[in-house]
Design a protein that fits this description.
about 170 residues; alpha/beta; five-stranded parallel β-sheet; about 15% strand; globular
Length: about 170
């Protein structure tokens, strides 16, 4: 089986759904951002603050390259990983790319409780979410499978992903 790669905007459920996929499929879940923090020994927030987004994106691509060489894993990417065509090509070589989607309202509701969202540390997070979503939408749409996460439990989304990945893999 190919890797399952979870992409999508922050707050669309990649972590929660990844945990359910890991439980159901008995595959290891690897979070790109967590692996970056472990290897760099610094938080994503600090990388953004000290070195800026361009350097973070370089580190992210290096990590994606490393993690994508593994087999039979679930890889959860950061919300902006899709912005680099190189990342998508690397992830697709050994994986099926699944994009999770949600409305801006849902995303704001899910992310408002966290301080770990450097791109949302602005005066009007809702406007920023809309701006980023509109810009990123064409990149997200390059995924192999799109999943709407509105009003669904992580378990239901994981089951939907498993079904769609099996169908996709038969093509």
């Amino acid at each position: 089986m190919k890797n399952i790669v979870l992409t999508g905007f922050m707050g669309t459920g990649k972590t929660a759904v990844g945990i359910e996929l890991e439980r159901l499929l008995k595959l290891k879940l690897i979070d790109v951002d967590t692996e970056i923090e472990k290897s760099e020994k610094i938080t994503i927030n600090e990388i953004f603050k000290q070195f800026g987004e361009p350097r973070f994106r370089e580190i992210e691509t290096e990590m994606i390259r490393k993690l994508s060489s593994q087999k039979n894993v679930i890889i959860s990417t950061g919300g902006g990983a899709v912005l680099k065509q190189e990342n998508m090509e690397i992830l697709r070589q050994n994986g099926v790319i699944v994009c999770l989607m949600a409305t801006p309202e849902t995303i704001l509701n899910r992310t408002s409780k966290s301080d770990e969202r450097p791109l949302l540390k602005v005066e009007n997070p809702f406007a920023k979410i809309n701006e980023l979503l509109n810009f990123r939408r064409p990149f997200y749409e390059k995924a192999d499978i799109m999943i709407d996460t509105e009003n669904k439990t992580p378990l239901r989304i994981a089951e939907e992903i498993i079904k769609k990945v099996k169908a996709y893999s038969k093509q």
